[in-house]
Protein backbone atom coordinates (compact mmCIF):
# COMPACT_ATOMS: atom_id res chain seq x y z
CA UNK A 1 0.00 0.00 0.00
CA UNK A 2 1.13 3.53 -0.75
CA UNK A 3 1.43 6.00 2.12
CA UNK A 4 -1.51 8.02 0.79
CA UNK A 5 -3.72 4.89 0.73
CA UNK A 6 -2.78 4.09 4.31
CA UNK A 7 -3.62 7.64 5.37
CA UNK A 8 -7.00 7.47 3.60
CA UNK A 9 -7.75 4.15 5.27
CA UNK A 10 -7.09 5.62 8.72
CA UNK A 11 -8.97 8.84 8.03
CA UNK A 12 -12.11 6.80 7.31
CA UNK A 13 -11.95 5.46 10.87
CA UNK A 14 -10.77 8.55 12.72
CA UNK A 15 -13.82 10.75 12.84
CA UNK A 16 -12.83 12.47 16.05
CA UNK A 17 -10.13 15.01 15.43
CA UNK A 18 -8.89 18.04 17.34
CA UNK A 19 -10.14 21.60 16.78
CA UNK A 20 -7.76 21.58 13.83
CA UNK A 21 -8.46 18.67 11.44
CA UNK A 22 -5.55 16.34 10.62
CA UNK A 23 -3.38 17.63 7.79
CA UNK A 24 -1.23 20.32 9.39
CA UNK A 25 2.30 19.97 10.74
CA UNK A 26 0.82 19.27 14.17
CA UNK A 27 -2.52 18.88 15.89
CA UNK A 28 -4.00 21.46 18.21
CA UNK A 29 -6.52 21.77 21.03
CA UNK A 30 -7.82 24.94 22.65
CA UNK A 31 -6.72 25.25 26.28
CA UNK A 32 -8.30 28.40 27.67
CA UNK A 33 -6.66 31.37 25.93
CA UNK A 34 -3.97 29.26 24.29
CA UNK A 35 -3.53 26.37 21.89
CA UNK A 36 -1.89 23.13 22.93
CA UNK A 37 0.02 21.86 19.91
CA UNK A 38 1.19 18.25 19.62
CA UNK A 39 3.07 16.32 16.98
CA UNK A 40 4.82 12.99 16.51
CA UNK A 41 7.27 11.72 13.94
CA UNK A 42 8.86 8.31 13.81
CA UNK A 43 12.42 7.74 12.64
CA UNK A 44 13.22 4.22 11.36
CA UNK A 45 16.93 3.52 11.01
CA UNK A 46 16.69 1.39 7.88
CA UNK A 47 14.77 3.91 5.81
CA UNK A 48 15.50 7.27 7.44
CA UNK A 49 19.10 7.16 8.58
CA UNK A 50 22.02 7.34 6.12
CA UNK A 51 25.06 5.32 7.27
CA UNK A 52 27.18 8.43 7.49
CA UNK A 53 25.04 9.85 10.32
CA UNK A 54 26.49 9.40 13.81
CA UNK A 55 24.18 8.05 16.53
CA UNK A 56 24.41 11.43 18.23
CA UNK A 57 23.18 13.13 15.06
CA UNK A 58 20.36 10.58 14.85
CA UNK A 59 19.21 11.36 18.40
CA UNK A 60 19.46 15.11 17.82
CA UNK A 61 17.48 14.90 14.60
CA UNK A 62 14.69 12.87 16.22
CA UNK A 63 14.12 15.90 18.45
CA UNK A 64 14.63 18.53 15.72
CA UNK A 65 12.10 17.07 13.30
CA UNK A 66 9.37 17.24 15.94
CA UNK A 67 10.35 20.63 17.32
CA UNK A 68 10.26 21.97 13.76
CA UNK A 69 6.63 20.90 13.39
CA UNK A 70 5.79 22.75 16.61
CA UNK A 71 7.68 25.84 15.40
CA UNK A 72 5.85 25.85 12.07
CA UNK A 73 2.55 26.16 13.97
CA UNK A 74 3.83 29.32 15.64
CA UNK A 75 4.09 27.53 18.98
CA UNK A 76 6.71 27.57 21.69
CA UNK A 77 7.88 23.98 22.34
CA UNK A 78 7.31 22.98 25.98
CA UNK A 79 8.10 19.28 26.21
CA UNK A 80 9.39 16.17 24.45
CA UNK A 81 8.58 12.46 24.77
CA UNK A 82 10.01 9.48 22.94
CA UNK A 83 9.54 5.76 22.43
CA UNK A 84 12.42 3.57 21.38
CA UNK A 85 12.38 0.29 19.51
CA UNK A 86 15.76 -1.34 20.08
CA UNK A 87 17.07 -4.42 18.27
CA UNK A 88 18.61 -7.02 20.58
CA UNK A 89 21.98 -6.79 18.80
CA UNK A 90 22.35 -3.01 18.83
CA UNK A 91 25.63 -2.15 20.52
CA UNK A 92 25.50 -0.07 23.65
CA UNK A 93 27.90 2.58 22.28
CA UNK A 94 25.46 3.31 19.49
CA UNK A 95 22.58 3.57 21.95
CA UNK A 96 24.64 5.81 24.22
CA UNK A 97 25.30 8.07 21.23
CA UNK A 98 21.56 8.30 20.52
CA UNK A 99 20.89 9.14 24.17
CA UNK A 100 23.61 11.82 24.13
CA UNK A 101 22.14 13.30 20.95
CA UNK A 102 18.64 13.47 22.42
CA UNK A 103 20.03 15.02 25.60
CA UNK A 104 22.00 17.64 23.66
CA UNK A 105 18.99 18.52 21.56
CA UNK A 106 16.83 18.96 24.66
CA UNK A 107 19.49 21.32 26.04
CA UNK A 108 19.70 23.16 22.73
CA UNK A 109 15.94 23.70 22.53
CA UNK A 110 15.55 24.12 26.30
CA UNK A 111 13.01 21.30 26.56
CA UNK A 112 12.22 18.82 29.34
CA UNK A 113 11.62 15.15 28.54
CA UNK A 114 8.24 14.20 29.97
CA UNK A 115 8.07 10.49 29.27
CA UNK A 116 10.12 7.77 27.59
CA UNK A 117 9.46 4.16 26.69
CA UNK A 118 11.79 1.40 25.52
CA UNK A 119 10.89 -1.78 23.66
CA UNK A 120 12.51 -4.56 21.72
CA UNK A 121 12.08 -4.25 17.96
CA UNK A 122 13.71 -5.55 14.79
CA UNK A 123 15.17 -2.21 13.79
CA UNK A 124 16.16 0.92 15.69
CA UNK A 125 13.10 3.11 15.89
CA UNK A 126 12.78 6.47 17.60
CA UNK A 127 9.30 7.88 17.81
CA UNK A 128 9.60 11.47 18.94
CA UNK A 129 6.72 13.54 20.26
CA UNK A 130 6.80 17.28 20.89
CA UNK A 131 4.28 19.50 22.65
CA UNK A 132 3.96 23.26 22.38
CA UNK A 133 1.82 26.24 23.29
CA UNK A 134 0.71 28.95 20.88
CA UNK A 135 -1.06 32.24 21.46
CA UNK A 136 -2.13 32.30 17.84
CA UNK A 137 -1.96 29.26 15.60
CA UNK A 138 -0.19 29.26 12.22
CA UNK A 139 -1.72 26.74 9.84
CA UNK A 140 -1.27 25.77 6.22
CA UNK A 141 -4.60 27.23 5.23
CA UNK A 142 -4.33 30.93 5.98
CA UNK A 143 -2.53 32.30 2.88
CA UNK A 144 -4.42 35.09 1.05
CA UNK A 145 -3.97 36.62 -2.44
CA UNK A 146 -1.73 39.67 -2.41
CA UNK A 147 0.55 38.34 0.34
CA UNK A 148 4.23 37.62 0.02
CA UNK A 149 5.70 34.09 0.13
CA UNK A 150 8.87 33.89 2.20
CA UNK A 151 11.36 31.34 3.50
CA UNK A 152 13.84 31.40 6.38
CA UNK A 153 17.53 30.66 5.87
CA UNK A 154 18.60 28.98 2.64
CA UNK A 155 17.58 25.86 0.76
CA UNK A 156 19.14 22.96 -1.10
CA UNK A 157 22.09 22.09 1.14
CA UNK A 158 20.46 19.01 2.69
CA UNK A 159 19.93 17.29 -0.67
CA UNK A 160 23.25 18.54 -2.06
CA UNK A 161 25.02 17.06 0.99
CA UNK A 162 23.18 13.79 0.46
CA UNK A 163 24.24 13.78 -3.20
CA UNK A 164 27.90 14.38 -2.29
CA UNK A 165 27.80 11.45 0.10
CA UNK A 166 25.70 9.12 -2.09
CA UNK A 167 27.84 9.70 -5.19
CA UNK A 168 31.15 9.90 -3.36
CA UNK A 169 31.76 13.28 -5.00
CA UNK A 170 35.16 14.83 -4.42
CA UNK A 171 34.62 18.41 -3.36
CA UNK A 172 36.63 20.86 -1.27
CA UNK A 173 36.12 20.77 2.47
CA UNK A 174 34.88 24.35 2.23
CA UNK A 175 32.09 23.11 -0.05
CA UNK A 176 31.32 19.91 1.82
CA UNK A 177 31.19 21.34 5.31
CA UNK A 178 28.12 23.58 5.02
CA UNK A 179 26.35 20.90 2.98
CA UNK A 180 27.01 18.16 5.54
CA UNK A 181 26.06 20.47 8.37
CA UNK A 182 22.59 20.90 6.92
CA UNK A 183 22.31 17.27 5.76
CA UNK A 184 23.38 15.76 9.08
CA UNK A 185 22.72 18.44 11.71
CA UNK A 186 19.72 20.52 10.71
CA UNK A 187 18.16 22.80 13.32
CA UNK A 188 14.56 23.81 13.85
CA UNK A 189 13.53 27.48 13.51
CA UNK A 190 11.98 27.90 16.94
CA UNK A 191 12.56 31.62 17.53
CA UNK A 192 11.37 32.41 14.00
CA UNK A 193 8.20 30.32 14.39
CA UNK A 194 7.23 32.11 17.60
CA UNK A 195 7.90 35.51 16.00
CA UNK A 196 5.89 34.56 12.91
CA UNK A 197 2.87 33.61 14.99
CA UNK A 198 2.31 37.35 15.45
CA UNK A 199 2.50 38.40 11.82
CA UNK A 200 2.32 35.54 9.31
CA UNK A 201 -0.95 34.27 7.81
CA UNK A 202 0.27 30.70 7.20
CA UNK A 203 3.38 28.57 7.62
CA UNK A 204 4.78 25.12 6.92
CA UNK A 205 8.22 23.65 7.57
CA UNK A 206 10.33 22.14 4.81
CA UNK A 207 10.27 18.46 5.67
CA UNK A 208 9.68 17.01 2.23
CA UNK A 209 11.00 19.71 -0.12
CA UNK A 210 10.08 23.34 -0.82
CA UNK A 211 8.15 22.50 -4.01
CA UNK A 212 5.96 19.95 -2.25
CA UNK A 213 5.34 22.26 0.73
CA UNK A 214 4.35 25.14 -1.58
CA UNK A 215 1.84 22.90 -3.36
CA UNK A 216 0.39 21.82 0.01
CA UNK A 217 0.19 25.42 1.23
CA UNK A 218 -1.55 26.57 -1.98
CA UNK A 219 -4.03 23.67 -1.94
CA UNK A 220 -4.89 23.96 1.73
CA UNK A 221 -5.27 27.76 1.48
CA UNK A 222 -7.21 27.60 -1.79
CA UNK A 223 -4.87 30.06 -3.51
CA UNK A 224 -2.24 30.19 -6.22
CA UNK A 225 1.47 30.85 -5.65
CA UNK A 226 4.06 32.33 -7.98
CA UNK A 227 7.73 31.92 -7.14
CA UNK A 228 10.61 33.66 -8.88
CA UNK A 229 13.51 31.23 -9.39
CA UNK A 230 16.05 34.06 -9.08
CA UNK A 231 14.75 34.91 -5.58
CA UNK A 232 15.30 31.43 -4.14
CA UNK A 233 18.02 31.54 -1.44
CA UNK A 234 20.00 28.63 -2.79
CA UNK A 235 22.56 27.49 -0.21
CA UNK A 236 26.33 27.68 -0.49
CA UNK A 237 27.77 24.77 -2.47
CA UNK A 238 24.48 23.63 -4.00
CA UNK A 239 25.31 25.09 -7.39
CA UNK A 240 28.71 23.39 -7.47
CA UNK A 241 27.28 19.96 -6.60
CA UNK A 242 24.44 20.35 -9.11
CA UNK A 243 27.02 21.31 -11.75
CA UNK A 244 29.13 18.21 -11.05
CA UNK A 245 26.06 16.02 -11.55
CA UNK A 246 24.62 17.93 -14.52
CA UNK A 247 21.56 18.97 -12.51
CA UNK A 248 19.62 22.21 -12.31
CA UNK A 249 20.48 23.82 -8.93
CA UNK A 250 16.96 25.25 -8.73
CA UNK A 251 15.52 21.73 -8.95
CA UNK A 252 17.91 20.50 -6.26
CA UNK A 253 16.83 23.38 -4.02
CA UNK A 254 13.12 22.75 -4.62
CA UNK A 255 13.43 19.01 -3.98
CA UNK A 256 15.62 19.20 -0.88
CA UNK A 257 13.82 17.72 2.16
CA UNK A 258 14.49 17.86 5.89
CA UNK A 259 15.73 21.41 5.65
CA UNK A 260 13.48 22.47 8.54
CA UNK A 261 13.33 26.01 7.21
CA UNK A 262 9.95 27.72 7.55
CA UNK A 263 7.95 28.77 4.52
CA UNK A 264 5.41 31.46 5.38
CA UNK A 265 3.05 34.00 3.90
CA UNK A 266 2.70 37.55 5.18
CA UNK A 267 1.04 40.77 4.04
CA UNK A 268 3.30 43.43 2.42
CA UNK A 269 2.43 45.77 5.34
CA UNK A 270 3.62 43.37 8.04
CA UNK A 271 6.70 42.00 6.29
CA UNK A 272 8.74 45.03 7.38
CA UNK A 273 8.35 44.14 11.04
CA UNK A 274 10.12 40.79 10.75
CA UNK A 275 13.48 41.01 12.47
CA UNK A 276 15.23 37.79 11.43
CA UNK A 277 16.85 36.78 8.14
CA UNK A 278 14.50 35.53 5.46
CA UNK A 279 13.90 35.80 1.72
CA UNK A 280 10.82 36.89 -0.20
CA UNK A 281 10.56 34.26 -2.92
CA UNK A 282 7.21 35.04 -4.50
CA UNK A 283 3.61 36.01 -3.96
CA UNK A 284 0.19 34.57 -3.29
CA UNK A 285 -2.27 34.96 -6.18
CA UNK A 286 -5.90 34.21 -6.85
CA UNK A 287 -6.74 31.05 -8.75
CA UNK A 288 -4.79 27.93 -7.98
CA UNK A 289 -1.56 26.10 -8.73
CA UNK A 290 2.08 26.82 -7.96
CA UNK A 291 4.15 28.43 -10.68
CA UNK A 292 7.86 28.96 -11.14
CA UNK A 293 8.93 32.06 -13.05
CA UNK A 294 12.38 32.27 -14.64
CA UNK A 295 13.98 33.61 -17.87
CA UNK A 296 12.16 30.86 -19.76
CA UNK A 297 8.79 32.22 -18.62
CA UNK A 298 6.22 30.81 -16.22
CA UNK A 299 5.54 27.10 -15.76
CA UNK A 300 3.87 24.83 -13.22
CA UNK A 301 6.34 24.08 -10.46
CA UNK A 302 7.18 20.35 -10.55
CA UNK A 303 6.09 18.61 -7.32
CA UNK A 304 9.65 17.80 -6.35
CA UNK A 305 10.22 16.54 -2.84
CA UNK A 306 10.55 13.56 -0.64
CA UNK A 307 7.75 11.34 -1.98
CA UNK A 308 9.16 11.87 -5.45
CA UNK A 309 12.75 11.83 -4.38
CA UNK A 310 13.29 8.25 -5.40
CA UNK A 311 12.38 8.98 -9.00
CA UNK A 312 14.28 12.22 -8.91
CA UNK A 313 17.34 10.49 -7.55
CA UNK A 314 17.01 7.79 -10.18
CA UNK A 315 17.08 10.53 -12.76
CA UNK A 316 20.07 12.11 -11.06
CA UNK A 317 22.02 9.01 -10.34
CA UNK A 318 21.45 6.97 -13.45
CA UNK A 319 21.17 9.50 -16.24
CA UNK B 1 21.26 -4.99 27.31
CA UNK B 2 18.50 -5.35 29.88
CA UNK B 3 15.68 -2.83 29.88
CA UNK B 4 16.84 -1.41 33.20
CA UNK B 5 20.36 -0.85 31.80
CA UNK B 6 18.92 0.95 28.78
CA UNK B 7 16.83 3.17 31.05
CA UNK B 8 19.87 4.00 33.20
CA UNK B 9 21.88 4.83 30.11
CA UNK B 10 19.23 7.29 28.92
CA UNK B 11 18.70 8.82 32.35
CA UNK B 12 22.38 9.77 32.44
CA UNK B 13 21.83 11.92 29.36
CA UNK B 14 18.38 13.31 30.09
CA UNK B 15 18.99 15.90 32.73
CA UNK B 16 16.06 18.07 31.75
CA UNK B 17 12.84 16.54 32.97
CA UNK B 18 9.37 17.93 33.60
CA UNK B 19 8.13 19.24 36.96
CA UNK B 20 7.63 15.57 37.79
CA UNK B 21 10.84 13.54 37.31
CA UNK B 22 10.66 10.47 35.04
CA UNK B 23 9.41 7.37 36.80
CA UNK B 24 5.66 7.85 37.06
CA UNK B 25 3.00 6.49 34.72
CA UNK B 26 3.16 9.73 32.77
CA UNK B 27 5.04 13.02 32.71
CA UNK B 28 3.54 16.31 33.78
CA UNK B 29 4.01 20.04 33.28
CA UNK B 30 2.28 22.87 35.12
CA UNK B 31 0.01 24.87 32.83
CA UNK B 32 -1.46 27.70 34.87
CA UNK B 33 -3.83 26.18 37.44
CA UNK B 34 -3.69 22.71 35.88
CA UNK B 35 -1.27 19.95 35.03
CA UNK B 36 -0.69 18.83 31.48
CA UNK B 37 -0.06 15.09 31.61
CA UNK B 38 1.56 13.19 28.73
CA UNK B 39 2.50 9.57 28.17
CA UNK B 40 3.61 7.28 25.37
CA UNK B 41 3.72 3.51 25.03
CA UNK B 42 4.85 1.51 22.04
CA UNK B 43 3.26 -1.75 21.01
CA UNK B 44 5.42 -4.09 18.90
CA UNK B 45 3.49 -6.89 17.22
CA UNK B 46 6.17 -9.55 17.56
CA UNK B 47 6.63 -9.19 21.31
CA UNK B 48 3.39 -7.60 22.54
CA UNK B 49 0.61 -9.11 20.47
CA UNK B 50 -0.57 -12.70 20.96
CA UNK B 51 -1.76 -14.32 17.68
CA UNK B 52 -5.27 -14.69 19.04
CA UNK B 53 -5.78 -10.95 19.22
CA UNK B 54 -7.75 -9.45 16.35
CA UNK B 55 -6.34 -6.34 14.63
CA UNK B 56 -9.28 -4.38 16.03
CA UNK B 57 -8.36 -5.48 19.56
CA UNK B 58 -4.75 -4.48 18.86
CA UNK B 59 -5.79 -0.98 17.79
CA UNK B 60 -8.13 -0.57 20.77
CA UNK B 61 -5.47 -1.72 23.21
CA UNK B 62 -2.88 0.72 21.82
CA UNK B 63 -5.25 3.48 22.95
CA UNK B 64 -6.27 1.85 26.24
CA UNK B 65 -2.73 1.34 27.53
CA UNK B 66 -1.97 5.03 27.11
CA UNK B 67 -5.29 6.29 28.41
CA UNK B 68 -4.78 4.11 31.48
CA UNK B 69 -1.50 5.88 32.26
CA UNK B 70 -3.30 9.22 32.04
CA UNK B 71 -6.11 7.95 34.29
CA UNK B 72 -3.66 6.71 36.90
CA UNK B 73 -2.33 10.27 37.22
CA UNK B 74 -5.82 11.47 38.09
CA UNK B 75 -6.08 13.26 34.76
CA UNK B 76 -8.88 13.57 32.24
CA UNK B 77 -7.61 12.37 28.83
CA UNK B 78 -7.93 15.12 26.20
CA UNK B 79 -6.19 13.82 23.09
CA UNK B 80 -4.44 10.93 21.38
CA UNK B 81 -1.64 10.72 18.82
CA UNK B 82 -0.04 7.72 17.18
CA UNK B 83 2.85 6.70 14.96
CA UNK B 84 2.69 3.53 12.90
CA UNK B 85 5.49 1.36 11.62
CA UNK B 86 4.04 -0.80 8.85
CA UNK B 87 5.79 -3.73 7.18
CA UNK B 88 5.55 -3.71 3.38
CA UNK B 89 3.79 -7.08 3.32
CA UNK B 90 1.10 -6.33 5.93
CA UNK B 91 -2.28 -6.98 4.37
CA UNK B 92 -4.67 -4.10 4.13
CA UNK B 93 -7.49 -5.95 5.96
CA UNK B 94 -5.27 -6.23 9.02
CA UNK B 95 -4.40 -2.54 8.84
CA UNK B 96 -8.06 -1.63 8.37
CA UNK B 97 -8.84 -3.63 11.52
CA UNK B 98 -6.21 -1.71 13.48
CA UNK B 99 -7.64 1.59 12.21
CA UNK B 100 -11.16 0.51 13.18
CA UNK B 101 -9.94 -0.49 16.65
CA UNK B 102 -8.22 2.86 17.21
CA UNK B 103 -11.33 4.68 15.97
CA UNK B 104 -13.62 2.68 18.28
CA UNK B 105 -11.36 3.30 21.25
CA UNK B 106 -11.33 7.05 20.56
CA UNK B 107 -15.14 6.97 20.49
CA UNK B 108 -15.23 4.89 23.67
CA UNK B 109 -12.96 7.28 25.56
CA UNK B 110 -14.34 10.39 23.82
CA UNK B 111 -10.93 11.46 22.55
CA UNK B 112 -9.84 13.35 19.43
CA UNK B 113 -6.80 12.21 17.45
CA UNK B 114 -4.42 15.16 17.17
CA UNK B 115 -1.69 13.81 14.96
CA UNK B 116 -0.73 10.59 13.20
CA UNK B 117 2.35 9.42 11.35
CA UNK B 118 2.97 6.38 9.15
CA UNK B 119 6.28 4.79 8.26
CA UNK B 120 7.68 1.65 6.76
CA UNK B 121 9.16 -0.75 9.33
CA UNK B 122 10.07 -4.41 9.62
CA UNK B 123 7.30 -5.22 12.09
CA UNK B 124 3.95 -3.68 12.90
CA UNK B 125 4.54 -1.01 15.51
CA UNK B 126 1.97 1.30 17.06
CA UNK B 127 3.36 4.03 19.25
CA UNK B 128 0.45 5.58 21.10
CA UNK B 129 0.60 8.91 22.90
CA UNK B 130 -2.08 10.28 25.21
CA UNK B 131 -2.45 13.75 26.72
CA UNK B 132 -4.52 14.70 29.72
CA UNK B 133 -5.31 17.52 32.14
CA UNK B 134 -5.41 17.17 35.91
CA UNK B 135 -6.53 19.57 38.62
CA UNK B 136 -4.51 17.63 41.16
CA UNK B 137 -1.86 15.12 40.21
CA UNK B 138 -1.80 11.54 41.51
CA UNK B 139 1.71 10.15 41.62
CA UNK B 140 3.37 6.99 42.85
CA UNK B 141 5.05 8.78 45.70
CA UNK B 142 2.23 10.09 47.86
CA UNK B 143 1.29 7.05 49.99
CA UNK B 144 1.48 7.63 53.78
CA UNK B 145 1.49 5.22 56.72
CA UNK B 146 -1.98 4.57 58.10
CA UNK B 147 -3.70 4.78 54.71
CA UNK B 148 -5.60 2.01 53.00
CA UNK B 149 -4.40 0.25 49.85
CA UNK B 150 -7.17 -0.33 47.34
CA UNK B 151 -7.71 -1.64 43.83
CA UNK B 152 -10.49 -1.11 41.29
CA UNK B 153 -12.33 -4.04 39.70
CA UNK B 154 -10.79 -7.49 39.93
CA UNK B 155 -7.40 -8.99 39.15
CA UNK B 156 -5.93 -12.09 37.53
CA UNK B 157 -8.17 -12.57 34.53
CA UNK B 158 -5.70 -11.17 31.98
CA UNK B 159 -3.01 -13.73 32.87
CA UNK B 160 -5.54 -16.54 33.37
CA UNK B 161 -6.91 -15.84 29.87
CA UNK B 162 -3.38 -15.87 28.49
CA UNK B 163 -2.73 -19.21 30.20
CA UNK B 164 -5.92 -20.73 28.77
CA UNK B 165 -4.87 -19.69 25.28
CA UNK B 166 -1.17 -20.53 25.62
CA UNK B 167 -1.82 -23.98 27.06
CA UNK B 168 -4.86 -24.73 24.92
CA UNK B 169 -6.83 -25.45 28.11
CA UNK B 170 -10.32 -26.81 27.61
CA UNK B 171 -12.63 -24.78 29.81
CA UNK B 172 -16.33 -23.92 29.64
CA UNK B 173 -17.30 -20.90 27.61
CA UNK B 174 -18.67 -19.37 30.80
CA UNK B 175 -15.15 -19.56 32.26
CA UNK B 176 -13.28 -18.54 29.13
CA UNK B 177 -15.41 -15.54 28.18
CA UNK B 178 -14.66 -13.23 31.14
CA UNK B 179 -11.00 -14.26 31.01
CA UNK B 180 -10.63 -13.53 27.30
CA UNK B 181 -12.52 -10.29 27.70
CA UNK B 182 -9.90 -9.00 30.13
CA UNK B 183 -6.97 -10.61 28.27
CA UNK B 184 -7.95 -9.26 24.85
CA UNK B 185 -10.19 -6.25 25.51
CA UNK B 186 -9.13 -4.53 28.72
CA UNK B 187 -10.50 -1.05 29.40
CA UNK B 188 -8.89 1.90 31.18
CA UNK B 189 -10.42 3.25 34.41
CA UNK B 190 -10.90 6.84 33.31
CA UNK B 191 -13.88 7.85 35.45
CA UNK B 192 -12.27 6.26 38.50
CA UNK B 193 -8.96 8.02 37.93
CA UNK B 194 -10.61 11.43 37.72
CA UNK B 195 -12.66 10.72 40.86
CA UNK B 196 -9.55 9.51 42.71
CA UNK B 197 -7.66 12.71 41.92
CA UNK B 198 -9.86 14.37 44.57
CA UNK B 199 -9.30 11.87 47.39
CA UNK B 200 -6.42 9.43 46.82
CA UNK B 201 -2.86 10.09 47.99
CA UNK B 202 -1.17 7.97 45.29
CA UNK B 203 -2.07 5.75 42.36
CA UNK B 204 -0.57 3.47 39.74
CA UNK B 205 -2.18 1.36 37.04
CA UNK B 206 -1.62 -2.38 36.76
CA UNK B 207 0.45 -2.67 33.60
CA UNK B 208 3.05 -5.15 34.78
CA UNK B 209 1.30 -7.00 37.61
CA UNK B 210 -0.13 -6.00 40.99
CA UNK B 211 2.88 -7.27 42.94
CA UNK B 212 5.34 -5.26 40.87
CA UNK B 213 3.16 -2.13 41.04
CA UNK B 214 2.87 -2.41 44.84
CA UNK B 215 6.65 -2.67 45.17
CA UNK B 216 7.05 0.41 42.96
CA UNK B 217 4.46 2.33 44.95
CA UNK B 218 6.09 1.42 48.27
CA UNK B 219 9.58 2.29 47.06
CA UNK B 220 8.63 5.58 45.47
CA UNK B 221 6.56 6.62 48.50
CA UNK B 222 9.18 5.44 51.00
CA UNK B 223 6.66 3.33 52.92
CA UNK B 224 5.81 -0.27 53.62
CA UNK B 225 2.67 -2.06 52.39
CA UNK B 226 0.85 -5.03 53.87
CA UNK B 227 -1.67 -6.88 51.73
CA UNK B 228 -4.09 -9.55 52.95
CA UNK B 229 -4.32 -12.40 50.43
CA UNK B 230 -7.96 -13.06 51.36
CA UNK B 231 -8.90 -9.48 50.44
CA UNK B 232 -7.60 -9.68 46.87
CA UNK B 233 -10.50 -9.43 44.40
CA UNK B 234 -9.49 -12.42 42.31
CA UNK B 235 -11.45 -12.47 39.06
CA UNK B 236 -14.03 -15.03 37.96
CA UNK B 237 -12.39 -18.13 36.46
CA UNK B 238 -8.89 -17.42 37.73
CA UNK B 239 -9.12 -20.06 40.46
CA UNK B 240 -10.30 -22.71 38.01
CA UNK B 241 -7.47 -22.04 35.54
CA UNK B 242 -4.88 -21.94 38.32
CA UNK B 243 -6.25 -25.28 39.59
CA UNK B 244 -5.95 -26.91 36.16
CA UNK B 245 -2.30 -25.85 35.98
CA UNK B 246 -1.43 -26.60 39.61
CA UNK B 247 -0.77 -22.92 40.33
CA UNK B 248 -1.59 -20.70 43.30
CA UNK B 249 -4.47 -18.41 42.20
CA UNK B 250 -3.06 -15.64 44.42
CA UNK B 251 0.22 -15.78 42.51
CA UNK B 252 -1.60 -15.67 39.18
CA UNK B 253 -3.54 -12.62 40.38
CA UNK B 254 -0.40 -10.86 41.64
CA UNK B 255 1.53 -11.53 38.42
CA UNK B 256 -1.21 -10.63 35.96
CA UNK B 257 -0.19 -7.67 33.80
CA UNK B 258 -2.11 -5.34 31.49
CA UNK B 259 -5.13 -5.42 33.75
CA UNK B 260 -5.35 -1.61 33.69
CA UNK B 261 -7.01 -1.56 37.08
CA UNK B 262 -5.95 1.28 39.36
CA UNK B 263 -4.13 0.62 42.63
CA UNK B 264 -4.46 3.57 45.00
CA UNK B 265 -3.95 4.66 48.57
CA UNK B 266 -6.44 6.71 50.53
CA UNK B 267 -6.95 7.75 54.13
CA UNK B 268 -9.58 5.83 56.19
CA UNK B 269 -11.55 9.10 56.50
CA UNK B 270 -11.82 9.69 52.77
CA UNK B 271 -12.39 6.11 51.66
CA UNK B 272 -16.10 6.36 52.48
CA UNK B 273 -16.63 9.03 49.86
CA UNK B 274 -15.58 6.84 46.93
CA UNK B 275 -18.63 6.00 44.85
CA UNK B 276 -17.37 3.29 42.48
CA UNK B 277 -16.61 -0.38 43.05
CA UNK B 278 -13.24 -1.14 44.57
CA UNK B 279 -11.61 -3.42 47.17
CA UNK B 280 -9.52 -2.56 50.20
CA UNK B 281 -6.66 -5.04 49.96
CA UNK B 282 -4.30 -3.83 52.66
CA UNK B 283 -2.69 -0.88 54.38
CA UNK B 284 0.29 1.42 54.20
CA UNK B 285 2.78 0.99 57.05
CA UNK B 286 5.96 2.63 58.25
CA UNK B 287 9.25 0.98 57.36
CA UNK B 288 9.64 -0.49 53.92
CA UNK B 289 8.90 -3.56 51.83
CA UNK B 290 5.69 -5.16 50.59
CA UNK B 291 4.27 -8.05 52.58
CA UNK B 292 1.60 -10.61 51.87
CA UNK B 293 -0.39 -11.88 54.82
CA UNK B 294 -2.26 -15.19 54.64
CA UNK B 295 -3.01 -18.21 56.89
CA UNK B 296 0.68 -19.14 56.67
CA UNK B 297 1.65 -15.80 58.23
CA UNK B 298 3.41 -12.77 56.75
CA UNK B 299 6.04 -12.96 54.03
CA UNK B 300 7.70 -10.63 51.52
CA UNK B 301 5.49 -10.41 48.46
CA UNK B 302 7.34 -11.93 45.51
CA UNK B 303 7.97 -9.36 42.77
CA UNK B 304 5.73 -11.12 40.31
CA UNK B 305 4.85 -9.27 37.16
CA UNK B 306 5.69 -8.65 33.59
CA UNK B 307 9.51 -8.43 33.81
CA UNK B 308 9.45 -11.69 35.69
CA UNK B 309 6.67 -13.21 33.68
CA UNK B 310 8.97 -15.15 31.43
CA UNK B 311 10.45 -17.06 34.33
CA UNK B 312 7.05 -17.41 35.91
CA UNK B 313 5.61 -18.74 32.69
CA UNK B 314 8.54 -21.11 32.32
CA UNK B 315 7.68 -22.42 35.74
CA UNK B 316 4.04 -22.69 34.78
CA UNK B 317 4.47 -24.12 31.35
CA UNK B 318 7.30 -26.54 31.84
CA UNK B 319 6.86 -27.83 35.35
TrEMBL record, chains A, B:
List of residues binding Mg(2+) 1 = 41, 117
Q: Which residues form the PurM-like N-terminal domain?
A: 23-133
Reaction(s) catalysed by this chain's protein: thiamine phosphate + ATP = thiamine diphosphate + ADP
Determine the domain of life of the protein's source: Archaea
Give the EC number(s) under which this enzyme is classified. Answer: 2.7.4.16
Q: Which UniProt keywords apply?
A: ATP-binding, Kinase, Magnesium, Metal-binding, Nucleotide-binding, Thiamine biosynthesis, Transferase
Q: Which NCBIfam families match?
A: PRK05731.2-2, thiL
**Further remark:** Reaction mechanism of ThiL seems to utilize a direct, inline transfer of the gamma-phosphate of ATP to TMP rather than a phosphorylated enzyme intermediate.
Give the family per the record: Belongs to the thiamine-monophosphate kinase family.
Main function: Catalyzes the ATP-dependent phosphorylation of thiamine-monophosphate (TMP) to form thiamine-pyrophosphate (TPP), the active form of vitamin B1.
What is the name listed in the Swiss-Prot or TrEMBL entry for this protein? Thiamine-monophosphate kinase
Which organism does this sequence originate in?
Thermococcus guaymasensis DSM 11113
Q: What is the lineage of its organism?
A: Archaea, Methanobacteriati, Methanobacteriota, Thermococci, Thermococcales
Amino acid sequence: MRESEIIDLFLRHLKRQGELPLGDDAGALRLGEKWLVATNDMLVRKTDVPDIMTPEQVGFKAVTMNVSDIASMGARPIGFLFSLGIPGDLDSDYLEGVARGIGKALDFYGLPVLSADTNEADDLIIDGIALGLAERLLTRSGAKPGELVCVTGDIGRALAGYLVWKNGLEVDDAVRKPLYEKFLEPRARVREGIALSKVASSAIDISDGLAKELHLLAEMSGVGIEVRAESLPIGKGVEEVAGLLGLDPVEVALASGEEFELVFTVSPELVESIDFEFSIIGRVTGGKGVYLVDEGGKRVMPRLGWEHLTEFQMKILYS
